[in-house]
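Lecture 7 notes. Example A: sequence first, then its structure tokens.
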Amino acid sequence: MKEAVAFQKSWPSQFSLDGYKKHMAEFLRWSELAFEQQSVQSLVKARARFIDQLLAALWQHQDLHQDNTLCLIAVGGYGRGELHPFSDIDLLILSEQQLTAQQQDQLSAFITQLWDLKLEVGHSVRTLDETLQLGKDDITIATNLMEMRRLLGNKALYERLHQAINATDFWTSQQFFEAKRHEQQQRHAQYHGTAYNLEPNLKANPGGLRDIQTVGWVAKRHFQTRTMRELVAYQYLTEDEYQELMECEAYLWQMRFALHLEAGRNENRLLFDYQPAVAERLGFGNDGKATVERMMKRFFRTVQRVSELNEMLLQHFEGSILNNHQSAKVQPLDDSFELHGHLIKALDNSVFARRDNLLKLFWHIANNSNITGIHSDTLRLLRQVRRRLMGDLQDYEACRRLFLALMRHPRGMDTSITLMHKYGILAAYLPQWRNIVGQMQFDLFHAYTVDEHTHRLLKNLYRYTLPEYDNEFPLCSDIVRRMEKPELLFLAGIFHDIAKGRGGDHSELGAMDAKEFCRLHKLSDFDSKLISWLVEQHLLMSVTAQRKDIHDPQVVTEFAEKVRDETRLNYLYCLTLADIRATNDNLWNDWKGSLLRDLYLSTQKAFRRGLEKPMDMRDQIRENQAEALRLLQRQAFTKTEIQHLWSRIKADYFIRYNPKQIVWHCEHILRHKEPKQPLVLVSKAPIRGSTQVFVYTPDQPNLFARLVSALDSKKVAIFDAQIMTNKDGYVMDTFVVLEQNGQPVTSPSRVQSIKRSLEQAIAGKVEPQRHSKLSRQMRQFNVPPKVSFLPGNSKNRTMVEIAALDAPGLLARIGDVFQQCAIQIHAAKITTLGERAEDFFMVSTAEDTALDFDQQSQLKRTLIDHLTHVTEG
């Protein structure tokens, strides 16, 4: 390893805060320059030596070097002699006895000086007995003590601590292993069990630096070694595995070192903000997203290798070194594999010379529910043969048969598909899958890389087949259970995003890949056409449900004509729901689920009626009115007063709302005794998975902007809006809202607060809102405002699509522009896709006519001007 050139300045003889800060700043500048030329290993060791010298100087300034009852010890990463530019400096000050008042003052001044120098210091002052007791009680403290290093002070006291820590009664190998494994499991759970997060934590992420350290800690505790290199001699890991771990660690260290330099603090989260600059520091270039993609693809390959090695070596340690698997029951599976406890194990080292055994391994896992994983010896073989593969596994006919058998197996999408993804066998089988491994998605809509998103989609599809999840999505469960060929759904899931990152329309390119797959695997023409259609149209249902008015019979008819039959509808519905849920754990909500379900049921009804006989709009109005009338009359309202109210309401109202909603609105309007006063209703219980806000009041200028501004001030997200003005000049506006966490508003006090805010907005008593600044993540995205005019179903209406950055107060600003341009809003569809808002408005002029060319041009210019100014600000 190339050593760092020493930093050649000595510390000032007398402590001066400014002088020391200057010295540290010079070292940081030297580190930045040296990073381009020297190994990262030498640089982290150079900073540890630099801090050693700093501590020695300050220790002496406080006359602590004259006190032989104290010992200054580096622990944790600093104990290993490794410090990144802004890493914490963890110190243990060991004392023979309780501190005197003078010692307390000296040590307080020592630590204060470190803080004054803006160093992140973690310190503890303890006696030997206190240190040992805390170490026995806390695995984190015990781990830090394992890597301690004496800096200054009483050497004999340090040796006593060192001997006590290495004694078997401090932590046995078994206890230490179990504690570290549990600690790792908890840490992985915080990251949803995946290494493929788009903003990973370089230390804590699965496959990150902590996983490398854990591999070393458990073995070093057992063998009483200090370095990973020594473990090769104990046959805990092979020379190749040691070199691979060191290579992975070096790359993660490079990223972490560059991240610290870029952030200017101890930052381990590789946030979108830092990714371009870190990539440039690492030499990947400066050509925007392509630079980041190159860096992150290598990162995800690295953490995948670390995850494999971590699992294999910890399992090897438990089974072969601690002998915890000696009593495992052994059961033969075939001529090549056996069941060893709950792990599948190859019978000899040449088992994978037959390439189809790579697939048969996973077929056995699907076929035997007792198998939970792969034995460490077999995982070693799998990793070795995977590196030597020439061509793709799908080139072998026997492999193709086994792959389809897995897709058709009732448990093929359970443990098998997860392990095939985890251990790179999916990438070895499908060349297109290799392209999406670690493929970034530069938006706030997706939380995972393309391959991990697809893996999660497949797991969602599999859940539909399991009885224990029947109550989760009962309609999907029912559909999948009745499917004759659910494997077609799984194959469509595999290919739906497989062409991302290639340029062009990924849906069309993916459909072509799916057709080629079907041809190679000799699927029927019908199955091939269904899979490729699902891949090509996998966004159709989501786009229709979230961006169009699905209560408009014409929208349903157009969607049904594209889908063509109920079989395709069933497959598409299940795929769409699983796809949306796999993008980001925080984005799914019951409102989206209700939209998809309503569209599915409406389209199913259209198919069963026959597309040539669509439901007439007048039939739907009469049907909804008849049911609402019946329910209202049961509440003692007369038919005359009901019909008098309805005579003032436009016909569209009775299409856009179901009978229960009509009753909810009308019963309150009929009881409302002060017609000039606003009526605001907020649903106390969720309606179709959301909270619905209904406003009935005389129309007035800029009402929409004031209403959405009031809702914005209450920190609720608007998902839909129906804006309607009656024949008598009253508005009947409905807003579908959810809390920021995607849940309906349920707190009674919160409901009342929203209601009061809206009443004040209608009365004009609310000052204009000062909108929040863009969040950290939002500031990384550039979404230039775009305004489009789309053909509508009414000659008196114009459909406007507005795409822009989802900045705080966006809807209120749009409403202000509509008011300024004398535009009336009749309906709004609010769609947020991560950082991007795509909102649709049905509008007209003040004279209730569609916008002509000049009016459209003026509106477009004004909107873009206002929204560009906002996003730039």
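Example B, a different protein, same format:
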Amino acid sequence: MSLSLFRHGRRVAVTLGTLVFSGCAVYAGFNYDQLYGTPEPQQRFVPPATPMAQRYLTEVKPILENRCVVCHACYDAPCQLKMSSAEGIDRGASKDKVYEGTRLLAANTTRMFIDAQTTEQWRDKGFTPVLNERTQSPEANTQAGVMARMLQLKQAHPLPEKTVLDDTRWDFSLDRDQQCPTIEEMAQYEQDYPQWGMPYGLPHIAPQEHDTLMEWLAAGAPMVGVEPPSAEIQAQIRSWEGFLNGNSLKEQLVSRYLYEHLFVSHLYFEQGDNKPVFFKLVRSRTAPGEPVDVIATRRPFDDPQTERVYYRFALVRETIVDKTHMPYALSDAKMARFEELFFEPEYSVSVLPGYQPEVAANPMRSFSQLPANARYRFMIDNAQNTIRGFIKGPVCRGQLALNVINDRFWVFFVDPDMADVPSVNKFYDAQAKNLRMPAEDESNTLPLTNWIAYSKQQGRFLRAKNALLNDTFKHGEHLTPELIWDGDEHNENAVLTVFRHFDSATVTKGLVGSPPKTAWVLDYSLLERIHYLLVAGFDVYGNFGHQLITRMYMDFLRMEGESNFLSLLPAEVRRQELADWYQDANQPLEKFLQGDINEFSQPSGIRYKTKDPKAELYQLLKQRVSPVSSQRYALNNARLSPQAMSALHRLEQLQGPQATLFPELTFIMVDPASSGATPQLFTLVRNSAHKNISSLFDEESNRDYLQDDVTLVYGLLGSYPGAFWHVKEAQLPALVAQANAVQNEQEYRALLDRFAIRRTDPDFWAFSDTLNALYHQNHPIDAGLLDYNRLQNR
């Protein structure tokens, strides 16, 4: 494979593409085996120093990332075609869906770099190639490869010249029918769906980009793997792998605990201004110094089937995408903190817990020998990352799990010093059986009988907890803002805001937006159980029963967090507030609400002075955490004129059915009036109101459209934009005036006609490039590529 072949491939690819799409499907009836030989995986990886490798890295890969990965990453990639790595492109596609809410049995897992290591192994698992795997010639590579044919199809049939695509011909729904054609099915696909070339439902890529990709494909799609880490980073890895693989029972148990909480994070080493390199913490059969041999289990606490587990660093080989990115910094200070939490206290570990599901799925049992305060401190030190786990970590798309939370709420934490008393540790130990988790039933379960058992179990736990609280907080003692962790006056993780965007969500530091309808106050047991329910114990490949019981159990945990918040309000207000949060709740839930979670009878220790105690409480809590409340999303960070900012503030007047017309997330780019100034980015978040969030299958019936509203923030918030607006600073008053006048779909579309970059806009890709570049420039560690699978067609 040579650079000359690469260049020659361009001429051949363009010529053949013209033949194929000149009006007759030349290859429709041909047998590919007869034409090009039988298929077998090809060796596509070339040495990094070669011109071919450098051409791939500098010219081809940026196009793949910015035009393909924006739709093809994570489990929600159409056809499971993950183009975020060279290995994923070579793996190809599958007709099987990861998100299949009705399956009776758990599906086989298909996780990149875990469940198979070679393309041959993926073929054995049913994945079909999108690159040509027959004779390697420019003709075969462009005519017997699905990816090449999809690109040529789009160039031959670009989007129609319409601002809004015909929804009888285009389907952008989350559960749309996916064709996933093999090369043998491509001729029929081209005939049936001539306008469904790639990128699907978006403008065709620029001719130069198309030629670059076709030239690369004609040459056999040569690729190169991820560059190995530097010597400096490898030294850091050796240090951390040494720390995580000590031989004592205490060291092994601590490392197991750390791993089961960090396995979904992207770990990186703080190195000044250098671009971060990210790693995953994995379980390996091999010790440090040897190649990593990943132990592939469904869950991080499943039996590893090996005598000794080693915790190793595996380089992240995929493009960083925002919807799965959870950066977690490692440093000498972080290692010292782990030493302080887990090794300085006086305690002993007499035996390592087993991996039986009833033990391993319940952290209150498996880690009972570790100090509860150390575990809690570890989780809240990086609370944003902890909560992000169940928002981003295992699933990318999680309607079943996320319709159990409100669209926007604040999260506070019990001060760990308040809970660091022997009676609390003894209580957790005594309640271990009542804190059992659904994951012990593994990936196949029956929901109804389990829900009854878990509701009784949760009831027993809450009655015991309320008895303890009634004894501990007599006469409202400590039921004041002092109960709430203040981040030790320096940690911004002390207070979080959670935004739900239908089937995705965002966790931010700070109190973002106006005071919300609900708030959570989390203690150790609650935080730990949420993690083991929705992160460590959740299986996106699990059957319907597993996913349903997980969602139902989360109802209990959410209500417990809400009840903790209510305990700070006057006793007579608690039930009133709860009744407002759970309007029209079903009878079993009403019974649970009126009984088990409401037996706490101690008065609040706060002397309220107004007739709106909840608003007063929010103000007291804001004062408590104000020194550490992040201002990243504050509108006053924007560098625009006072007149422009005044106009933007008026956007937040949208409410009720008017707000409902807007998408979950609108990303706004404002070009400042000052010449050469950096464009300013904003996000308009639509918050969907609910009478209650206890409905499993009919969320629509619980919607309260009159209470919908919006939150406007500085910067980009969320991974899945629904709309893009691009305006000049001088246009902001006109934009806001028109937005606030929108009353129906026709008026909303008129707003888009004037200010939006629609998915059909000829400037779409140029805007996309600028937006992603600004995001990375503003937040080089946190940012990842945005995802366009939720862009609306309006």
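Note on Example B: The chain has a mean pLDDT of 89. The CA atoms of residues 262 and 281 lie 7 Å apart.
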